[in-house]
Amino acid sequence: MPHFTEMADDDVMDLIAYLRSQEPVENAVPDRELTVEVHHMIEDTSPAEAPTEGVERGAYIVALARCTQCHTPSNDDGSKNMDLFLAGAPFRDTVAPNLTPDEGTGLGAWSEQEIADFLATGVYDDGTESHGGMKGVVDSGIGMLTDDDRLAVAAYLKSLDPIDNLPEPSE
To answer: Whose CA is closest to 157, among 68, 92, 80?
Structure first.
């Protein structure tokens, strides 16, 4: 399960227990062909235990929520451009915004509480709702975090090095 390599063992076991508690679903699963080599992509980077508070907890949640998938641009080979980690990226016909604390292009003007409130509701201070994929992320996942976890995410985002990056939508 390469998507869960950053998850603590206890959290993986809790997830497995939850999945095993669900009723099976009958469905036809289409055949898939693996189109990339994954041997170099799988490594054990999971912490022994999940951090419980502060910036470390926020970093853990951001990794599990896979925020980089939308908010970090990709290189030509499909890998993530970690020089622009969470600095925004083209996303379909829009952009995933810069989450670094850059004053001009990121979350620099936002307080930690404002970030946490947005993560809870997906609504900006002016009443505008988030768009693109973020609405679904809030409604089906990150909006269900505890207040403390949303504040931990906000603290982590504010702790990042600011990156001046204003992505343009892809054509």
So the answer is: 68
Q: Which residue(s) pair with 100 in the sheet?
A: none
Q: In Å, how far are 31, 104, 128, 166 from 65, measured between CA atoms?
A: 27, 25, 23, 22
User: The domain 50-159 belongs to what CATH superfamily?
Assistant: Cytochrome c-like domain (1.10.760.10)
Beta-strand relationship, 94-96 and 89-91: antiparallel
Query: What residue spans of the chain are helical by DSSP H?
Result: 9-21, 54-65, 68-71, 112-121, 134-140, 147-159
Each domain of the chain, given as residue ranges in start order, spans 50-159
pLDDT tens series, the chain, 171 aa: 456 667 787 888 888 899 999 998 899 888 887 665 554 455 555 666 788 889 999 999 999 899 999 999 999 888 899 999 999 999 878 899 999 999 999 999 999 999 999 999 999 888 999 877 888 889 888 899 999 999 999 999 999 999 999 988 876
Nearest to 115 by CA among 159, 68, 73: 159
CA distance 3 to 124: 30
